[in-house]
Amino acid sequence: MKITRQQLQELILQEVKSLLEGDPKVGTGKKPKGSGRRLYTDENPKDTVKVKFKTASDIRKTLAKKSFKSKSHNRQSQIINLIHQRVRAAYKNAKNPDTKKRLKKAYDYAKKRKEASKRKTQGMRKKKWRLQKDN
């Protein structure tokens, strides 16, 4: 197969563009178009909070950790949403009645914490809006 000079130039140009795009140095995985982040990788392992959601007690312990409480409200909300989504999926897929009962309690607790987080976010937004309105 012969490659013309123009085709070669286009290939080189594409390669240079992909190099200049600035992929994250850490992690491999699928990179969505237009995003500087990769999916399925931990680009900042220092920001990690180990999450357990097998029981409501595990969720309480996770949310009481220093590593969780030291995060910003936005990051805490992300973690609470992650726990909520995972425990919801586990509950829906559970077949064993005992497991389903345990996960139902965990799911209800996660839902309660998620709603509390939402209320806090709304309160913070109202407070910010009032401050901007006053200035």
Question: What does the secondary structure layout of this molecule look like, with pairings?
Answer:
Blueprint: H1 5-20, H2 56-64, H3 66-69, H4 73-93, H5 97-134
Short descriptors:
extended, mainly alpha
Helix/sheet category: mainly alpha
Estimated radius of gyration: 23 Å
The rounded distance between the terminal residues' Cα atoms is: 69 Å
What is the strand tally? Answer: 0
Shape by Cα distribution = extended
Per DSSP, the total helix count is 5
Structure description:
With 135 residues, this protein is an all-alpha fold. It has a domain at 45-134. 65% of the residues lie in helices and 0% in strands. The protein is built from five helices and no strands. Helix 2 (56-64) runs parallel beside helix 5 (97-134) and helix 4 (73-93) packs antiparallel against helix 5 (97-134). The model has no long low-confidence stretch (mean pLDDT 83).
Question: What's this model, at a glance?
Answer:
The protein has a domain at 45-134. The chain has helices at 5-20, 56-64, 66-69, 73-93, 97-134.
